[in-house]
Amino acid sequence: MDRIFKQSERNFLNPKTPHCHELCADCVGTEGRHGWPILEVRRNKELVMQQEIVNKTVLKISVPNDCRRNLFEFEFINKKPDDTVVEDGNIIADKQIIIKNFQLHNANFTQIERFTRYYPIWPEDFEHKPRSIQSSTLSFNGVMKFYYTNPPLEYFKKFKNQGYFDQPHIRKEIENNFEKTLTILQLHG
Question: What structural domains does the chain harbor?
């Protein structure tokens, strides 16, 4: 069967093969009393990066095609209880990390709260301490988890708003792909 189709045709007909790609995260760090925040990034429990987030920082993480499932953990590790600077009841400086968006294969995810869970380590004096929250702002030490399967765009298609496929340029792309699939199958059928 493999001899019937060219490699490019097999790739087109079977797009779900895991492939190498890059995950980019746009982060903004704010300085606290004891300096800038540090973020550790793990992929499937393996440390892939540890970086100080100074002002605006773009993290670029290469993702190999060795694993279909990818669990990323973004861990804020160096906030101290006195990193928040308060004067006259107002916070004037606070060490935190804001993850603005993720980029995967030219797709830009700006509302990352839909795809992530943040598990903060709450200070002792907090009254309301949920186990996890949906937030792109890491205000306390803790882990934000982000999961997807490889290839990523196949996984995220199911999260698109209803009506996404009604857009003219998307409809055209679907029709073109359908026609291309039919042509390949007819050539070898």
Answer: 1-17+164-189 (no CATH), 20-150 (2.60.60.40)
